[in-house]
Write a structure and sequence with these properties.
Blueprint lengths: L2 H15 L3 H8 L9 E7 L28 E3 L6 E3 L12 E8 L6 H10 L12 H9 L9 E4 L18 E3 L17 H18 L5 H16 L2 H4 L9 H7 L2 H15 L3 E5 L20 H21 L6 E7 L20 E7 L6 E3 L1 E2 L6 E3 L2 E2 H11 L7 E4 L2 E4 L13
Parallel strand pairs: 1-7, 1-8, 4-10, 4-13, 5-6, 5-7
Antiparallel strand pairs: 2-3, 4-9, 8-9, 11-12, 14-15
Length: 425
């Protein structure tokens, strides 16, 4: 090697060694990019117990205060991967699924803070309003079709699901009743189409008389109004007509939550980029996934409802050749410890819990990461919330290394998260 070339190479390497690890990785390899086009995000509010669902351990005994799973486990389509007995519809489909068993964060006893963490990927800040993962993906990719919104929430609105500093145009449309579309897109009684047209002309003249503005918030709201007017016609609202689906398919999805999942598939077909579907809006077991004390007695009802609807969604998307284009994720604010509380239920645990990925063109393996014999601690492949979000972003072609900007302030999309690279191999 010539001396000049040696010195040049040495200087380059020494400069690289001085870079932070994340920046060095960025200079050495391009970001991972999957080919999915849509995300259906299933939210299990309250805290799903991983040991009672996708990370089963030995069976415990609440009366004897013996830590462990509440239910026996069963085999799945993936050798060595087991799930709770109440996930019998999902078990044959686990070759299309990855239960990420080693998600973790440091929020334990505050549902609101943990819900915020699992939607924005960050702790609550007093100086900045962070956008949710749904708003981030909507902002970066937009709607798949021009006459569809980028982001629909089938559940109750909440600031943690919102756009934060990205502005109203990256927010969601929402509904809670699957029998009709979002109320804000339907004309109120007494407002004819002619009267609506006059209102729109009046709005246009007001906007024209105001002139152009550089105010980011005003521009954001103008964009949101324009999108709402575009979506208020009958074409988009046909997506909410579930009775157009065959009766046997509707029955396969199950009850109200299943119908929300069926609607999410119809919204994917319509061109919506990101759909969040909330489970258990009506607290069918009395306490929801927050299974303290006697709340655990009917936990199996929730698990069975999730099992039926999610399995139907996977099969339906697959039959319509949409599964590889649609990433399904299941998230919850934290997990549950294996020990039973004084009433036989479970407390909160953020040190190790499970979130689920399905479809999306990923190389699924049934389960990723390993926890110890009671799922209290992580043994292999820890996945931070930013890592999980980076995996979701990568799957739909969003650059997880990119900065967004709150004014002049750079905000990394995933707080320096790295995707689970093995799922993209």
């Amino acid at each position: 090697m010539k001396r000049r070339h040696f010195l040049k190479t040495g200087a380059t390497l020494s400069g690289s060694l001085a870079l932070p690890h994340s920046l060095l990785a960025e200079t050495l390899s391009p970001p991972i990019r999957g080919k999915a086009e849509h995300v259906i995000s299933i939210w299990l509010g309250g805290g799903m117990a991983q040991t009672d669902t996708f990370d089963p351990k030995r069976v415990g005994d609440p009366k004897a205060k013996k830590a462990g799973s509440y239910y026996p486990s069963i085999d799945t389509a993936v050798p060595g991967v087991r799930v709770c007995e109440h996930l019998s519809h999902m078990a044959p489909l686990m070759d299309r699924v990855t239960a990420v068993r080693t998600v973790n964060h440091n929020v334990i006893d505050e549902h609101a803070a943990a819900t915020n963490r699992m939607h924005t990927g960050r702790p609550i800040s007093g100086t900045i309003s962070y956008p949710s993962i749904g708003s981030i993906i909507s902002h970066e990719r937009g709607a798949v079709a021009e006459d569809a919104p980028p982001y629909v929430l089938i559940g109750y609105p909440n600031v943690t699901r919102g756009p934060g500093f990205l502005g109203a145009q990256s927010s969601y449309l929402y509904l809670t009743d699957t029998s009709r579309g979002p109320a804000g897109l339907s004309l109120p009684p007494g407002i004819s189409s002619g009267r609506q047209a006059r209102r729109e002309r009046f709005l246009s003249s007001l906007q024209a008389s105001a002139g152009t503005t550089a105010d980011r918030q005003l521009k954001s709201y103008d964009a949101a109004i324009a999108q709402s007017l575009k979506l208020s016609g009958p074409e988009f609202n046909r997506a909410f007509q579930l009775d157009a689906e065959p009766a046997d398919l509707r029955n396969e999805y199950g009850g109200e939550f299943g119908q929300r999942c069926l609607l999410s598939r119809r919204l994917v077909e319509r061109g919506v980029r990101f759909i969040e579907v909330s489970h258990n809006l009506n607290f069918i077991n009395g306490t929801g996934w927050d299974a303290h004390k006697e709340g655990i007695l009917q936990q199996h009802v929730l698990i069975q409802e999730l099992d039926i609807a999610m399995a139907a969604l996977i099969r339906d998307l697959s039959a319509k050749k949409l599964l590889d284009k649609t990433l399904i994720i299941v998230t919850t604010e934290f997990g549950r410890p294996p020990e039973f509380d004084s009433g036989g239920g479970r407390g909160h645990q953020g040190s190790a819990f499970t979130c689920v990925l399905a479809g999306g063109g990923l190389k699924h393996c049934g389960a990723w990461g390993q926890t110890d014999d009671l799922s209290k601690n992580i043994v292999t492949h820890p996945v931070s919330v930013p890592d999980f979000f980076a995996t979701v972003c990568a799957a739909v072609g969003v650059d997880y290394r990119k900065n967004l900007y709150d004014g002049d302030r750079p905000v990394p999309i995933t707080d320096q998260g790295n995707p689970i690279a093995a799922l993209f191999a």
